[in-house]
Amino acid sequence: MDIQKIREDFPILSRTVYGKPLVYLDNGATTQKPRMVVDSLVNEYYSVNANVHRGVHYLSQQATELHEASREAVRRFINARGVSEIVFTRGTTESVNLLASSFGEEFMGEGDEVIVSVMEHHSNIVPWQLLATRKGIRLKVIPMNDRGELLLDEYEKLFTERTKIVSVTQVSNVLGTVNPIKEMVRVAHAHNVPFMVDAAQSVPHMKVDVQELDADFLVFSAHKMYGPTGVGVLYGKEEWLDRLPPYQGGGEMIQHVSFEKTTFNELPFKFEAGTPDYIGTTGLAKAIDYMNAVGMERIAAHESELTAYALERLRAIPDMRMFGEAAERGAVISFLVGNIHHFDLGTLLDRLGIAVRTGHHCAQPLMQRLGVEGTVRASFALYNTKEEVDALVAGIERVRRMF
Ligand code: C6P
Description:
The chain is built from 14 helices and 17 strands. The protein has a seven-stranded mixed sheet, with helices on both faces. It has a four-stranded antiparallel sheet with strand order 13-14-17-16, covered by helices on one side. The chain starts with a helix and ends with a helix. By secondary structure, the protein is α/β, with parallel strands linked by helices. The structure holds ligand C6P.
Protein backbone atom coordinates (compact mmCIF):
# COMPACT_ATOMS: atom_id res chain seq x y z
CA MET A 1 0.00 0.00 0.00
CA ASP A 2 1.48 3.35 -1.03
CA ILE A 3 0.46 5.44 1.99
CA GLN A 4 1.95 8.67 0.70
CA LYS A 5 -0.13 8.36 -2.46
CA ILE A 6 -3.24 7.59 -0.41
CA ARG A 7 -2.58 10.62 1.80
CA GLU A 8 -2.62 12.84 -1.27
CA ASP A 9 -6.27 11.86 -1.75
CA PHE A 10 -7.08 13.54 1.60
CA PRO A 11 -6.33 17.28 1.29
CA ILE A 12 -6.90 17.97 5.00
CA LEU A 13 -3.98 15.72 5.99
CA SER A 14 -1.48 18.21 4.62
CA ARG A 15 -2.68 21.12 6.75
CA THR A 16 -0.98 22.34 9.90
CA VAL A 17 -2.41 23.15 13.34
CA TYR A 18 -0.56 25.53 15.67
CA GLY A 19 2.14 25.57 12.99
CA LYS A 20 2.69 21.80 13.31
CA PRO A 21 1.82 19.14 10.74
CA LEU A 22 -1.56 17.64 11.58
CA VAL A 23 -1.38 14.12 13.06
CA TYR A 24 -4.99 12.98 12.92
CA LEU A 25 -5.60 10.06 15.29
CA ASP A 26 -9.30 10.58 16.02
CA ASN A 27 -10.68 8.35 13.29
CA GLY A 28 -13.01 6.49 15.66
CA ALA A 29 -14.93 9.75 16.02
CA THR A 30 -14.93 10.50 12.30
CA THR A 31 -12.57 9.83 9.39
CA GLN A 32 -11.31 12.39 6.92
CA LYS A 33 -12.75 12.38 3.38
CA PRO A 34 -10.97 11.61 0.13
CA ARG A 35 -11.24 14.08 -2.70
CA MET A 36 -13.46 11.76 -4.77
CA VAL A 37 -16.13 11.70 -2.04
CA VAL A 38 -16.21 15.49 -1.63
CA ASP A 39 -16.12 15.99 -5.42
CA SER A 40 -19.11 13.69 -5.81
CA LEU A 41 -21.14 15.87 -3.41
CA VAL A 42 -20.25 19.07 -5.24
CA ASN A 43 -20.82 17.54 -8.67
CA GLU A 44 -24.22 16.19 -7.77
CA TYR A 45 -25.35 19.54 -6.37
CA TYR A 46 -24.07 21.33 -9.46
CA SER A 47 -25.31 18.96 -12.13
CA VAL A 48 -27.94 16.46 -10.96
CA ASN A 49 -29.73 17.96 -7.97
CA ALA A 50 -33.48 17.21 -7.83
CA ASN A 51 -35.69 15.47 -5.30
CA VAL A 52 -35.76 11.68 -5.65
CA HIS A 53 -38.69 9.29 -6.26
CA ARG A 54 -40.99 12.23 -6.99
CA GLY A 55 -40.44 13.78 -10.38
CA VAL A 56 -41.10 12.57 -13.89
CA HIS A 57 -38.50 15.04 -15.08
CA TYR A 58 -35.02 14.14 -16.24
CA LEU A 59 -33.06 15.44 -13.25
CA SER A 60 -35.27 13.75 -10.71
CA GLN A 61 -34.92 10.46 -12.54
CA GLN A 62 -31.16 10.82 -12.69
CA ALA A 63 -30.92 11.71 -8.99
CA THR A 64 -33.15 8.74 -8.16
CA GLU A 65 -30.94 6.41 -10.19
CA LEU A 66 -27.85 7.62 -8.33
CA HIS A 67 -29.57 7.24 -4.95
CA GLU A 68 -30.76 3.72 -5.70
CA ALA A 69 -27.38 2.77 -7.18
CA SER A 70 -25.90 3.78 -3.80
CA ARG A 71 -28.30 1.42 -2.06
CA GLU A 72 -27.07 -1.37 -4.34
CA ALA A 73 -23.43 -0.40 -3.53
CA VAL A 74 -24.19 -0.72 0.19
CA ARG A 75 -25.98 -4.05 -0.39
CA ARG A 76 -22.94 -5.42 -2.18
CA PHE A 77 -20.52 -3.99 0.41
CA ILE A 78 -22.13 -5.90 3.31
CA ASN A 79 -23.46 -8.75 1.14
CA ALA A 80 -27.16 -8.31 1.96
CA ARG A 81 -29.57 -10.47 -0.05
CA GLY A 82 -31.51 -7.55 -1.51
CA VAL A 83 -31.74 -3.77 -1.65
CA SER A 84 -35.06 -3.96 0.22
CA GLU A 85 -32.93 -4.82 3.27
CA ILE A 86 -30.96 -1.54 3.15
CA VAL A 87 -32.65 1.36 4.97
CA PHE A 88 -30.93 4.75 4.78
CA THR A 89 -30.88 6.73 8.02
CA ARG A 90 -28.96 9.70 9.44
CA GLY A 91 -26.37 7.46 11.11
CA THR A 92 -25.79 4.62 13.56
CA THR A 93 -27.64 6.46 16.31
CA GLU A 94 -30.78 6.93 14.26
CA SER A 95 -30.58 3.34 13.04
CA VAL A 96 -30.58 2.00 16.61
CA ASN A 97 -33.38 4.38 17.61
CA LEU A 98 -35.43 3.26 14.62
CA LEU A 99 -34.96 -0.39 15.52
CA ALA A 100 -35.54 0.00 19.26
CA SER A 101 -38.65 2.05 18.69
CA SER A 102 -40.14 -0.09 15.95
CA PHE A 103 -39.10 -3.51 17.29
CA GLY A 104 -40.08 -2.46 20.82
CA GLU A 105 -43.49 -1.29 19.62
CA GLU A 106 -44.27 -4.55 17.85
CA PHE A 107 -42.52 -7.25 19.84
CA MET A 108 -41.82 -6.06 23.39
CA GLY A 109 -43.94 -5.48 26.46
CA GLU A 110 -43.70 -5.14 30.23
CA GLY A 111 -41.04 -7.47 31.68
CA ASP A 112 -39.42 -8.35 28.32
CA GLU A 113 -35.64 -8.19 28.09
CA VAL A 114 -32.92 -6.90 25.78
CA ILE A 115 -29.33 -8.11 26.14
CA VAL A 116 -26.55 -5.56 25.57
CA SER A 117 -22.90 -5.60 26.65
CA VAL A 118 -20.92 -3.56 29.15
CA MET A 119 -18.85 -2.03 26.33
CA GLU A 120 -21.72 -0.48 24.37
CA HIS A 121 -21.71 3.09 23.10
CA HIS A 122 -24.51 5.23 24.58
CA SER A 123 -26.35 4.94 21.23
CA ASN A 124 -26.81 1.25 21.89
CA ILE A 125 -27.91 1.75 25.49
CA VAL A 126 -30.10 4.83 25.71
CA PRO A 127 -32.62 3.95 22.92
CA TRP A 128 -33.32 0.68 24.77
CA GLN A 129 -33.55 2.56 28.06
CA LEU A 130 -36.15 4.91 26.56
CA LEU A 131 -38.09 1.78 25.74
CA ALA A 132 -37.57 0.57 29.29
CA THR A 133 -39.23 3.74 30.57
CA ARG A 134 -42.06 3.62 28.00
CA LYS A 135 -42.83 -0.07 28.04
CA GLY A 136 -41.27 -1.48 31.21
CA ILE A 137 -38.67 -3.65 29.47
CA ARG A 138 -35.38 -4.60 31.18
CA LEU A 139 -31.75 -4.33 30.05
CA LYS A 140 -29.41 -7.23 30.82
CA VAL A 141 -25.69 -6.64 30.48
CA ILE A 142 -22.97 -9.05 29.28
CA PRO A 143 -19.92 -8.56 31.52
CA MET A 144 -16.26 -8.65 30.41
CA ASN A 145 -12.91 -9.74 31.86
CA ASP A 146 -10.08 -7.33 32.69
CA ARG A 147 -8.60 -7.71 29.19
CA GLY A 148 -11.83 -6.31 27.75
CA GLU A 149 -13.24 -9.57 26.37
CA LEU A 150 -16.93 -10.41 26.78
CA LEU A 151 -17.66 -13.42 29.00
CA LEU A 152 -19.49 -15.76 26.69
CA ASP A 153 -20.52 -18.19 29.45
CA GLU A 154 -22.20 -15.33 31.28
CA TYR A 155 -23.80 -14.20 28.02
CA GLU A 156 -25.48 -17.58 27.57
CA LYS A 157 -26.81 -17.45 31.12
CA LEU A 158 -28.61 -14.14 30.49
CA PHE A 159 -31.19 -15.68 28.14
CA THR A 160 -34.66 -16.29 29.56
CA GLU A 161 -38.06 -16.81 27.94
CA ARG A 162 -38.45 -12.99 28.19
CA THR A 163 -35.37 -12.23 26.04
CA LYS A 164 -36.58 -10.55 22.85
CA ILE A 165 -33.42 -9.18 21.21
CA VAL A 166 -29.62 -8.98 21.63
CA SER A 167 -27.79 -5.79 20.60
CA VAL A 168 -23.99 -5.76 20.75
CA THR A 169 -21.12 -3.89 19.16
CA GLN A 170 -18.75 -5.73 16.82
CA VAL A 171 -15.77 -3.55 17.77
CA SER A 172 -15.52 -1.48 20.97
CA ASN A 173 -14.85 2.22 20.31
CA VAL A 174 -12.82 2.37 23.54
CA LEU A 175 -11.08 -0.99 24.00
CA GLY A 176 -10.73 -1.96 20.37
CA THR A 177 -12.02 -5.44 21.26
CA VAL A 178 -13.38 -7.36 18.27
CA ASN A 179 -16.27 -9.38 19.67
CA PRO A 180 -16.98 -12.92 18.37
CA ILE A 181 -20.24 -11.79 16.78
CA LYS A 182 -20.80 -14.85 14.60
CA GLU A 183 -20.64 -17.14 17.64
CA MET A 184 -22.82 -14.76 19.67
CA VAL A 185 -25.45 -14.64 16.91
CA ARG A 186 -25.47 -18.44 16.84
CA VAL A 187 -26.19 -18.54 20.59
CA ALA A 188 -29.01 -15.97 20.25
CA HIS A 189 -30.57 -17.89 17.38
CA ALA A 190 -30.41 -21.12 19.40
CA HIS A 191 -32.77 -19.26 21.78
CA ASN A 192 -34.89 -17.98 18.86
CA VAL A 193 -33.78 -14.41 19.59
CA PRO A 194 -32.74 -11.93 16.85
CA PHE A 195 -29.40 -10.08 16.99
CA MET A 196 -28.49 -6.48 16.13
CA VAL A 197 -24.83 -5.73 15.38
CA ASP A 198 -23.47 -2.23 15.97
CA ALA A 199 -20.95 -2.13 13.15
CA ALA A 200 -20.03 1.58 13.50
CA GLN A 201 -16.44 0.69 14.40
CA SER A 202 -16.08 -2.48 12.31
CA VAL A 203 -17.35 -1.66 8.81
CA PRO A 204 -14.58 0.95 8.23
CA HIS A 205 -11.83 -1.54 9.10
CA MET A 206 -12.73 -5.09 8.08
CA LYS A 207 -14.85 -7.06 5.64
CA VAL A 208 -18.32 -7.38 7.18
CA ASP A 209 -20.70 -9.89 5.60
CA VAL A 210 -24.21 -9.88 7.06
CA GLN A 211 -25.00 -13.32 5.64
CA GLU A 212 -21.85 -14.86 7.05
CA LEU A 213 -22.58 -13.34 10.48
CA ASP A 214 -26.26 -14.27 10.06
CA ALA A 215 -27.04 -10.88 11.66
CA ASP A 216 -30.73 -9.97 11.78
CA PHE A 217 -29.93 -6.24 11.94
CA LEU A 218 -26.69 -4.30 11.45
CA VAL A 219 -26.10 -0.56 11.73
CA PHE A 220 -23.33 1.86 10.76
CA SER A 221 -22.47 5.48 9.84
CA ALA A 222 -21.02 6.79 6.57
CA HIS A 223 -18.86 9.44 8.27
CA LYS A 224 -16.71 6.86 10.06
CA MET A 225 -15.89 5.15 6.74
CA TYR A 226 -14.59 8.10 4.67
CA GLY A 227 -18.12 9.13 3.66
CA PRO A 228 -20.17 12.26 4.42
CA THR A 229 -21.87 13.14 7.70
CA GLY A 230 -25.60 12.73 8.08
CA VAL A 231 -25.98 9.34 6.38
CA GLY A 232 -26.18 5.89 7.91
CA VAL A 233 -27.58 2.45 7.31
CA LEU A 234 -29.92 0.04 9.02
CA TYR A 235 -29.60 -3.39 7.48
CA GLY A 236 -32.41 -5.79 8.39
CA LYS A 237 -33.38 -9.21 7.13
CA GLU A 238 -36.43 -8.76 4.95
CA GLU A 239 -38.52 -11.14 7.03
CA TRP A 240 -37.89 -8.92 10.08
CA LEU A 241 -38.28 -5.52 8.38
CA ASP A 242 -41.56 -6.72 6.87
CA ARG A 243 -42.97 -7.34 10.32
CA LEU A 244 -41.85 -4.01 11.85
CA PRO A 245 -44.12 -0.94 11.92
CA PRO A 246 -42.89 2.37 10.42
CA TYR A 247 -40.74 4.60 12.63
CA GLN A 248 -41.69 8.06 11.36
CA GLY A 249 -44.61 9.18 9.22
CA GLY A 250 -44.47 11.49 6.22
CA GLY A 251 -43.87 11.54 2.50
CA GLU A 252 -42.16 8.66 0.72
CA MET A 253 -43.09 6.02 3.33
CA ILE A 254 -46.75 5.82 2.25
CA GLN A 255 -48.60 3.99 -0.51
CA HIS A 256 -51.92 5.78 -0.12
CA VAL A 257 -53.15 8.38 2.35
CA SER A 258 -56.69 9.39 3.20
CA PHE A 259 -58.00 10.90 6.41
CA GLU A 260 -59.62 7.56 7.17
CA LYS A 261 -56.73 5.21 6.50
CA THR A 262 -53.13 5.19 5.30
CA THR A 263 -51.29 2.27 3.75
CA PHE A 264 -47.52 2.04 3.77
CA ASN A 265 -44.93 1.81 1.02
CA GLU A 266 -42.93 -1.34 0.34
CA LEU A 267 -39.47 -2.00 1.84
CA PRO A 268 -37.20 -0.19 2.39
CA PHE A 269 -39.21 3.01 1.77
CA LYS A 270 -41.61 2.22 4.63
CA PHE A 271 -38.80 3.36 6.94
CA GLU A 272 -37.64 6.39 4.96
CA ALA A 273 -40.07 9.21 5.70
CA GLY A 274 -39.34 12.55 4.04
CA THR A 275 -36.69 13.62 1.55
CA PRO A 276 -33.62 11.43 2.07
CA ASP A 277 -30.05 12.75 1.98
CA TYR A 278 -29.69 11.56 -1.62
CA ILE A 279 -26.52 13.62 -2.12
CA GLY A 280 -25.01 12.03 0.98
CA THR A 281 -25.88 8.50 -0.14
CA THR A 282 -23.96 9.10 -3.38
CA GLY A 283 -21.02 10.20 -1.22
CA LEU A 284 -21.32 6.98 0.79
CA ALA A 285 -21.23 4.93 -2.43
CA LYS A 286 -18.07 6.80 -3.48
CA ALA A 287 -16.51 6.08 -0.08
CA ILE A 288 -17.29 2.39 -0.61
CA ASP A 289 -15.70 2.59 -4.07
CA TYR A 290 -12.64 4.17 -2.48
CA MET A 291 -12.32 1.49 0.20
CA ASN A 292 -12.85 -1.29 -2.34
CA ALA A 293 -10.20 0.22 -4.62
CA VAL A 294 -7.67 0.15 -1.77
CA GLY A 295 -9.00 -3.27 -0.72
CA MET A 296 -10.55 -4.18 2.65
CA GLU A 297 -7.90 -6.86 3.29
CA ARG A 298 -5.12 -4.35 2.68
CA ILE A 299 -6.79 -1.76 4.91
CA ALA A 300 -7.15 -4.36 7.68
CA ALA A 301 -3.53 -5.55 7.29
CA HIS A 302 -2.13 -2.01 7.31
CA GLU A 303 -4.12 -0.97 10.37
CA SER A 304 -3.26 -4.16 12.21
CA GLU A 305 0.46 -3.61 11.59
CA LEU A 306 0.17 0.02 12.68
CA THR A 307 -1.74 -0.92 15.85
CA ALA A 308 0.85 -3.58 16.76
CA TYR A 309 3.63 -1.03 16.26
CA ALA A 310 1.79 1.60 18.34
CA LEU A 311 1.07 -0.89 21.14
CA GLU A 312 4.73 -1.88 21.32
CA ARG A 313 5.97 1.72 21.39
CA LEU A 314 3.31 2.97 23.82
CA ARG A 315 3.87 0.06 26.22
CA ALA A 316 7.51 1.13 26.55
CA ILE A 317 6.46 4.49 28.04
CA PRO A 318 6.86 4.46 31.85
CA ASP A 319 3.60 4.68 33.85
CA MET A 320 1.57 3.77 30.75
CA ARG A 321 -1.81 2.19 31.58
CA MET A 322 -3.68 0.64 28.67
CA PHE A 323 -7.36 -0.26 28.60
CA GLY A 324 -8.19 -3.21 26.40
CA GLU A 325 -5.84 -6.12 25.85
CA ALA A 326 -8.18 -8.45 23.95
CA ALA A 327 -6.63 -11.14 21.78
CA GLU A 328 -8.76 -9.93 18.84
CA ARG A 329 -8.52 -6.16 18.52
CA GLY A 330 -9.05 -3.31 16.10
CA ALA A 331 -7.23 -0.05 15.43
CA VAL A 332 -8.18 1.68 18.70
CA ILE A 333 -5.91 2.23 21.73
CA SER A 334 -7.12 3.76 25.01
CA PHE A 335 -4.66 4.75 27.71
CA LEU A 336 -3.71 6.92 30.66
CA VAL A 337 -0.20 7.96 31.66
CA GLY A 338 0.69 8.20 35.38
CA ASN A 339 -1.72 10.55 37.05
CA ILE A 340 -1.89 13.02 34.16
CA HIS A 341 -5.53 13.87 33.57
CA HIS A 342 -6.78 12.61 30.19
CA PHE A 343 -8.03 16.06 29.32
CA ASP A 344 -4.61 17.66 30.06
CA LEU A 345 -2.79 15.03 28.02
CA GLY A 346 -5.19 15.46 25.09
CA THR A 347 -4.95 19.26 25.23
CA LEU A 348 -1.16 19.28 25.31
CA LEU A 349 -0.94 16.74 22.49
CA ASP A 350 -3.27 18.97 20.49
CA ARG A 351 -0.76 21.85 20.88
CA LEU A 352 1.76 19.56 19.17
CA GLY A 353 -0.63 19.05 16.27
CA ILE A 354 -1.79 15.61 17.44
CA ALA A 355 -5.57 15.04 17.44
CA VAL A 356 -6.70 12.34 19.87
CA ARG A 357 -9.98 11.94 21.71
CA THR A 358 -10.25 12.29 25.48
CA GLY A 359 -13.08 11.64 27.92
CA HIS A 360 -15.64 8.89 28.35
CA HIS A 361 -16.07 8.25 24.60
CA CYS A 362 -19.87 8.03 25.02
CA ALA A 363 -19.38 4.82 27.00
CA GLN A 364 -19.83 5.86 30.63
CA PRO A 365 -20.95 2.41 31.89
CA LEU A 366 -17.70 1.02 30.46
CA MET A 367 -15.70 3.77 32.19
CA GLN A 368 -17.37 2.72 35.44
CA ARG A 369 -16.34 -0.89 34.82
CA LEU A 370 -12.76 0.27 34.15
CA GLY A 371 -12.82 2.44 37.27
CA VAL A 372 -11.82 5.62 35.44
CA GLU A 373 -13.54 8.84 34.51
CA GLY A 374 -12.08 8.88 31.01
CA THR A 375 -9.11 7.90 28.85
CA VAL A 376 -7.05 9.22 25.97
CA ARG A 377 -7.81 7.38 22.74
CA ALA A 378 -5.80 7.09 19.54
CA SER A 379 -7.72 5.51 16.65
CA PHE A 380 -6.22 4.78 13.24
CA ALA A 381 -7.41 4.81 9.64
CA LEU A 382 -5.96 3.61 6.35
CA TYR A 383 -3.90 6.82 5.85
CA ASN A 384 -2.06 6.81 9.20
CA THR A 385 1.68 6.09 9.30
CA LYS A 386 4.34 4.80 11.68
CA GLU A 387 5.82 8.31 11.69
CA GLU A 388 2.54 9.56 13.12
CA VAL A 389 2.71 6.90 15.84
CA ASP A 390 6.27 8.08 16.55
CA ALA A 391 4.97 11.66 16.81
CA LEU A 392 2.32 10.50 19.31
CA VAL A 393 4.92 8.67 21.42
CA ALA A 394 7.29 11.65 21.35
CA GLY A 395 4.38 13.94 22.27
CA ILE A 396 3.43 11.79 25.27
CA GLU A 397 7.09 11.67 26.42
CA ARG A 398 7.23 15.44 26.21
CA VAL A 399 4.04 15.88 28.24
CA ARG A 400 5.37 13.39 30.83
CA ARG A 401 8.51 15.47 31.26
CA MET A 402 6.38 18.59 31.75
CA PHE A 403 4.51 16.91 34.59
N1 C6P B 1 -18.55 6.83 18.29
C1 C6P B 1 -16.47 7.87 18.96
O1 C6P B 1 -15.66 8.80 19.01
P1 C6P B 1 -23.01 8.14 15.23
O2 C6P B 1 -22.63 9.26 16.14
O3 C6P B 1 -24.49 7.93 15.17
O4 C6P B 1 -22.38 8.23 13.88
O5 C6P B 1 -22.35 6.81 15.86
C2 C6P B 1 -22.64 6.42 17.16
C3 C6P B 1 -21.79 5.25 17.57
C4 C6P B 1 -22.39 4.04 17.77
N2 C6P B 1 -21.68 2.93 18.09
C5 C6P B 1 -20.35 2.98 18.24
C6 C6P B 1 -19.61 1.72 18.57
C7 C6P B 1 -19.67 4.20 18.05
O6 C6P B 1 -18.35 4.23 18.20
C8 C6P B 1 -20.41 5.36 17.73
C9 C6P B 1 -19.74 6.70 17.58
C10 C6P B 1 -17.73 8.02 18.15
O7 C6P B 1 -16.24 6.78 19.49
C11 C6P B 1 -18.43 9.29 18.50
S1 C6P B 1 -19.07 9.29 20.14
